[in-house]
Amino acid sequence: MGLLDGKVALITGGSRGIGAEIVRKYAKEGADVVFTYRSSAEKAIALQKEIEGMGVRAEAIQSDAADFSQAEALVKQVLDNFGKIDILINNAGITKDTLMLRMGEEQWDQVIEVNLKSVFNLTKHALRPMLKNRGGSIINMSSVVGVFGNAGQANYAASKAGIIGFTKSIAKEVGSRNIRCNAIAPGFIETEMTEVLDEKTKENFLSNIPMKKLGTGEDVANACVFLGSDMGAYVSGQVLSVCGALNT
Ligand code: NAP
User: Fold this and answer.
1) 47 pLDDT exceeds 90?
2) Is residue 139 part of a domain?
3) Which residue's CA lies nearest to atom 21 of ligand 1?
4) Is residue 92 in some structural domain?
5) pTM for the full model?
6) Confidence band of 149 (pLDDT split at 50, 70, 90)
7) pLDDT bracket for residue 200 (50, 70, 90)
């Protein structure tokens, strides 16, 4: 028996990195999984096949999380094909790092739209079916950078801090309707997003992590299982750091 048996989960940005590990872990725990991607079609289709082999239903859908009407169409498609949404994981995210003096309007807008507006887009459309279903769990992927900032990431840090305020507000708005909303703040997790950082930056990060190791996508996925499942039934409005004690 899995911790997520009978649940339907919608996960944005599931084709690679942390999102792909959440998709795998959710399927292993018995959830039917719909996940989105923007451009990695091959990886998404391969992952869909892998998940179908695990005995649950899976569907990969190309959908830009930053686009309000695409988010609306996505939620409709999930409801048509799966009947409900028990868990929404707003995981899609990008970085466009540069110092403030060099940051252009486009780098600001793109990061805010993909990382923050996407969370509004998906929550807005998934909330009504959750209300109808008399329950749900929303998990938003923030970052430790949203808690304490980071030079060269003002756009990213602002988007991730915005997610925390949004999460707490939604938890207060819909708590009485049995809908929970939490954020996860990963520290330094090894994925393609962090692969681009130079060795010196990585070493610097590592020296500041009390547990002296980087995190994995699976570490974050495990936290998503807790918050998405009934194990987290009385946990809402919280920011759970998965960071090897970096945020301590
Ligand atoms: P990643 O390896 O770069 O993967 C990003 C995922 O998001 C991909 O599946 C990508 O799809 C998808 N995506 C990007 N823009 C999208 C859009 N507009 N619409 C739909 N999907 C989109 O990143 P990651 O490291 O796994 O990060 C996942 C989340 O964790 C992000 O929100 C990130 O900010 C957060 N986070 C990561 C770390 C870390 O150390 N890695 C730390 C803290 C927080 P395509 O494959 O199609 O491009």
Assistant:
1) yes
2) yes
3) 13
4) yes
5) 0.98
6) very high
7) confident
In a domain, 2, yes or no: no
Place of tokens 């403030």: 100
What's the gap in Å between 194 CA and the centre of ligand 1?
Answer: 10
CB 14 within 8 A of CB 23: yes
- The tokens describing 99, both together, are 């110092």
Q: How far apart are CA 10 and CA 33, in angstroms?
A: 6
Q: Annotated catalytic sites, by residue?
A: 156
Q: Which atom of ligand 1 is nearest to the CA of 40?
A: 47
What is the domain extent for residue 185? 8-241
Query: Given the CA of residue 64, which atom of ligand 1 is nearest to it?
Result: 19
- Per the structure, how many domains does the chain have? 1
Q: Which of 186, 193, 200 is nearest to 247 (CA)?
A: 186
C-alpha of residue 6 to centroid of ligand 1, in Å: 26
Unique residue bearing structure tokens 């991607």: 37
β-pairing, 58-62 vs 87-90, is: unpaired
**29 inside domain:** yes
Reading the block at residue 218, the tokens are: 């699976």
**How many residues in the chain?**
248
